[in-house]
Amino acid sequence: MSTKLCFNSKCKEPSDKWRRGWRRRTGEYAHLCDRCASVYEDEKFCETFHLKSSGWRCCESCGKQIHCGCIVSFHMFVLLDAGGIECLTCAKGCILTPNPAWPPPLHFLPSQPERMKDLSAKSWSPIVGSGPVPWRQAPSLFNGSDVPSNMKLRMPVEADVSSGIDRYRICERLSTASPEMKQGSSFERLVNGNMRHGLFEKPQNGNTGLNVKEKRYSFVNNFKPVFPKNDSSSANLKLATVSSSKTETGNEHICGLLPPSSAISIPVAQKVCSRNGMDLSGDTHMRNGKGRGDGRVRDQLLLRYRPQIVGEEFQQISSDSKTVITPLFEKMLSASDAGRIGRLVLPKKCAEAYFPLITQPEGLPLSILDVKGNEWMFQFRFWPNNNSRMYVLEGITPCIQSMQLQAGDVVTFSRLEPEGKLVMGGRKALAIPSSDQGAEISIVGNNTFPPGDGSGRYNSVDVISVNGHEKVAEKILEDKPTIHNKRKNSNFSAKSKRLRIDDGDMIELKITWKEAQGLMRPPAKIVPSFVVVEGCEFEEFEEAEPVIGRPTIPGVDNFGEKIQWIQCEDCFKWRKVPADALLPSRWICSENEWDLDRSLCSSAEELTKEQLEHMLPTMNKDSSINEITELDGDLAVALEGLDALANLAIQGEASSENRTKHPRHKPGCTCIVCIQPPSGKGSKHKQSCDCMVCISLRRRCRTLMESRDRKKMEKQAESSCHNLQSQPKQLRGKVSKSGYLNETNERKSEISPLKGQIDLNIQPEREEDSSPVSDSAPPKMKCSLFPSFSADGVFKQHQKSLGSNVIGNLVGKQMQKDG
DNA sequence: ACTCTGCATGGTC
DNA sequence: TGACCATGCAGAG
Predict the structure, then answer these.
(1) Residue A132 CA, nucleotide B4 C1', distance (Å)
(2) What is the spatial distance between Cα A659 and Cα A621, in angstroms, rounded to a whole number?
(3) Collapsed DSSP state (helix, strand, coil) of residue A567
(4) Residue A149 and residue A141: Cα distance in Å, rounded?
(5) What nucleotide is nearest A455 when CA is compared to C1'?
(6) Which residues neighbour strand C (beta carbon < 7 Å)?
(7) Can you give the pLDDT at residue A537?
């Protein structure tokens, strides 16, 4: 056996003989040296090695310190439903649930020291774990297949009546399924001698013929029921004699006083069965020993609501190191949820698992904190729906608004431990900039989605919004690519819907016209023809499609030859390259084939500082550039795969600031392009504008289009037959995919009454506006190696690939197509 | 005419 | 096929 180091990082003693320690997340066991293994088996591992680590908590019963959140000792405690923990010894005899702290895969089940095994074998279902995590994952709801459904519990909820009345700490450690739990003695042991109350209720109205319905409650005995004064439902106050009763299943309960509509009664479990055995309660618990429905399917559904481990949003309310936040579930806001109605449809399973039991449709008020610590009161209720229930939180509008959430964003529900308070958080969806923001660039890719998913879940990888750049990179780093099953695309807002991407590789590129101008470059060795419109000179490239390349700064070298300056992606030094060099979107010194002396980043910059300043007059002065630089930095990681275009666009803007508005006009040029106001500003030309510029442009565009049409027809006639036969099938498929929008636009442009006209104020980003103007916007930019003076418009292009040349080609193709 | 409420419907899995 | 859930819609206020 080879010599190994002890797995214990504090030890690392080499040994060729090792013993098995805890099971790691990988499923393997930690290999410990003799000494560490002994310590581990004596349950003193954390005491010995992790004493200075955080995460120590006291057993609520005996006060024993346990290192929670550590994979080594996670089997040594249970989470109390009312918050806090209890060591396994104290919990022995009344344990009914696996430690919910670490859910998933069964194979993560760590081994336990021998002395613990019999205990756990008798009183625990398999403890599952995925290792120490700073946040407690929600319990078994999301991994039902791993844990017997009869071990699933409704999670504890501590609810307040917001007016400062006593808090009712509710413990719900009973389970209908656990035999141990059905013993009154165990039950009464639950909360350290506190008196507990239980209730066995009558069947719900309307559910005549119900076989069984049981609710159990457990309260601490300092329970002081104070009912809302204006509780209209108080007439329905359920008073149950404080007495012991036995359920039909033989469970013994102590019944207590239950205010029905205050946020205080937290059920342990309920079961409502109709005559035919249908579970009307929506109970998450077992039926005939099995979970309802297909466990696998259910798990998949629930996957949608699995909370992501995001913690920073709760920092404000969890500054106390002892506070642990248990993410419960999350949900993307649908249009309905975020609408004015103020109703948030709650996932049924989640609502039943984590929210208080409600038996009446009116439900009960629920106090939920937001991440800032503000307390919100919602009405948690349900509607009967297809023999089931539909749970909603009512009155969420103010809260949603305060969190500035909208459809597509995600609301998260968590629980603060040990307080047990529900906490509602929000996560912005890195939404597409609204149309009035003058979106600079937005790249949407759904490459993290499973095929056909079409999920509207906004993952930070999915949407990159440069306007919201301050969060972009951060988000991308923070959010792991996740796959969520979304059943409906309808979870999109109207704006989101347009971002649905049918093809897995399709991305959407939106850049402003101005940027597009900056990015477009004449094809190599192609001399543009010049068109004069209203005294202004425009370049046209009729013989070849323009391409998109890295923005450079044109200049003249000492010999009077035209050159261009390009900045190295890595060292940011400016290098001189020939004027006709077409450079990739990411260019670094090592690609400087023209000047080998400066083909290393370590080589000195040719330009002096003064020259550079002269060349980049606004450098270091224009805050927007700084912003862009910062943005660029932010995006550096994020855009690794998508960066080419984004960088292009970003730098395009930066560069455009350094030049004239028209990328190829000289400084000081007063042509209409160069003197145009910044994007989105200034007066706009109306569709019907008949100024000389518009008329000229229309005329010129028309002739241009006609010319292109003619050429296109000729070309097509020549090559169509040959193409159809020789073109590989796959390629044809690709073309069809990348032509997704083209086709759409083509179709739209056919029906557009404005075909052939120029809209100088196109705002393609306002796609919801089904106006033909915006619909046909992208084709309109065809004229566009010429002025971008309708620069408030946004150029949008669906793209199969990110290569800049491909974009150029696509742009060109689209130009042809719409020509 | 508008909002609110409660339920029904239909798409999706 | 059943469950879930987004959303539509009718009726009440």
Answers:
(1) 47
(2) 14
(3) strand
(4) 9
(5) B12
(6) A 278-279, 282, 292-293, 301, 305, 331, 334-337, 343, 345, 347-349, 385-388, 390, 488, 490-491
(7) 56
Q: Which nucleotide is nearest to A493 (CA to C1')?
A: C6
List residues bridging with A394 in a β-sheet. A343, A379
For A338, phi then psi, to 5°, come to -90, 0
Give per-residue pLDDT as tens, A291-346: 333 333 334 436 667 665 444 555 555 555 567 777 788 888 888 888 888 899 99
CA separation for the pair A136, A81 (Å, rounded): 13
Q: What is the pLDDT of residues A588-608, one digit of tens each?
A: 888 888 888 888 888 888 877
What is the distance in angstroms measured between the alpha-carbon CA of A296 and the sugar C1' of C2?
A: 15
Q: How far apart are CA A705 and CA A757, in angstroms?
A: 11
Query: Would you state the structure tokens that stand for residue A282, as one six-digit string?
Result: 């929506």
CA distances from A753 to A744, A750, A774, A776 (A): 16, 8, 12, 10
Q: Which residues contact A19 (CB under 8 A, 6 or more apart)?
A: A31, A32, A33, A34, A37
**Comparison of pLDDT for A633 and A380, the residue scoring more:** A380
Q: Is A425 exposed, middle or buried (0-12, 13-18, 19+ CB in 10 A)?
A: buried
CA of A303 to C1' of B9 (A): 26
What is the percentage of chain A residues whose pLDDT exceeds 90?
0
Q: Using the structure, give the distance in angstroms from the CA atom of A341 to the C1' atom of B2, rounded to a whole number.
A: 13
CA to C1' distance (Å), from A303 to C6: 18
Q: Tell me the nt nearest to A407, Cα to C1'.
A: C6
Convert the pLDDT of each residue in A663-692 to its tens digit.
333 444 444 443 433 333 333 344 455 555
Nucleotide with minimal C1' distance from the CA of A335 is C6
pLDDT at A708: 61
Q: How far is the CA of A339 from the C1' of B1 (A)?
A: 20
Phi and psi angles of residue A219, each rounded to the nearest 5 degrees, phi first: -125, 155
pTM recorded for the entire structure: 0.33
Identity at A628, one-letter amino acid code: I
Average pLDDT for A40-59: 80
Give tens-digit pLDDT for A152-184. 333 333 333 332 222 222 233 323 333 333 333
Task: Give mean pLDDT, residues A275-299.
Answer: 33
Length A383 CA → B6 C1' (Å)? 8
CA to C1' distance (Å), from A97 to B5: 39
Q: What is the pLDDT of residue A118?
A: 31
Footprint of strand B on the protein (CB under 7 A): A 297, 300, 340-341, 361-362, 383-386, 390, 394, 454, 485-489
User: Which bases on strand C have an atom closer than 7 Å to a protein beta carbon?
Assistant: 3-8
Measured CA to C1', the nucleotide nearest A384 is B7
User: How much is the average pLDDT of A564-571?
Assistant: 81
> Which bases of strand B sit closer than 7 A to a protein CB?
4-13
Cis? peptide before A481, omega within 30° of 0: no
Between the CA of residue A184 and those of A78, A89, A98, A188, A219, what are the distances in Å?
A: 20, 19, 20, 6, 14
